[in-house]
Amino acid sequence: MSSEDITIYVICHDLKSAKMAKNDELYTPLFVGADGQDTFEFLGDDTGDNISKRNRYYSELTGLYWMCKNSESKIIGLNHYRRYLSKSKLGGFLDKKDIEDYLKNHDIIVPKLYNNLGCLSNRENFMMAYFPSIPNIHDLTREVILEKSPEYLDAFDDVMKSNFTTHSNIFIGPKDLMNDYVDWIFPLCSDLEDKINSIRGHPKRLMGYLTEVYFQVWIKHLNLKVKEVEPKFIGIKLNLSKFIVKTRTARKIYETLILPYKKDKILKTSKKFIGN
Predict the structure, then answer these.
(1) Gap between the Cα atoms of 266 and 8, Å rounded
(2) What is the SS3 assignment for 96?
């Protein structure tokens, strides 16, 4: 397989992030939300078949859509300018040989799942972190799945109950396989948007957040053989978050001193939005 058969697109959104992004024969910066913007000669998500105008709501998903509809590579990947996939905890970026070796025996490469702080389920975690204004967001999603793709319900319920998650819609896998995901997730997001458009206060990039978990639903339903690898973060803030999540003592301190306060604050906000 030639290097042109594998392309890892590195999501960026402005000149600073594009310059930070890894850029070589394997890794290519992809400027998302490029419609009407100066991409400074970087590849943008506003060419060919695209939904670049939806970036303010869909975040990196407009890049995912562009890759699946326009890339000529057989293997594609989505990384971020500060978030990549790594060989090991202290390792470097995945290279072409790593990817080829992993995909010989696996369907897709994703970041290692981690346990939500406080052992919260994905349902609880997302309500606390993002959606006090839409406490029933996953129930609305379940309604859409029941109507459009009921065969996914068991996987959806299992993932919502689970306290293991991942982040940022990061992956590397065959383009043909990812087209299957695109064909499932974007109609689901569109129908879900119709249900929540009248609800005030929801996060602008709602679909980008939700699909970080719903990606797992698709993987579980298809029973894909997954290769989990360490995420590689760039920057102090992201690595501090990783340290808290993955270090027992740091997790305990956070869960004892900070998490209860956050839970109480979110609960009060939730009650304000839903009128209780």
Answers:
(1) 37
(2) helix
| Spatial distance between the Cα atoms of 90 and 136, rounded to a whole number of angstroms | 39
Task: Output DSSP code: residue 112.
Answer: P
In the numeric block, the tokens 């392309």 are attached to: 7
Mean pLDDT by 10 residues, the chain (276 residues): 81 95 97 94 97 94 98 97 88 93 98 81 75 73 95 96 88 98 96 80 79 95 97 76 73 73 59 44
Query: In this structure, how many other beta carbons lie within 10 angstroms of the beta carbon of residue 45?
Result: 30
Nearest of 165, 166, 24, 11 to residue 77 by alpha carbon: 11
CA distances from 88 to 111, 228, 265 (A): 11, 11, 37
Report the candidate in 202, 174, 211 with the shortest Cα–Cα distance to residue 67.
Answer: 174
Domains of the chain listed by start with CATH number: 3-232 (3.90.550)
Could you give the CA distance from residue 142 to residue 122 in angstroms, rounded to a whole number? 14
Phi, psi angles (nearest 5°) of residue 195: -80, -25
Collapsing DSSP to helix, strand or coil, 128 comes out as: helix
- Would you state the structure tokens that stand for residue 158, as one six-digit string? 């299992």
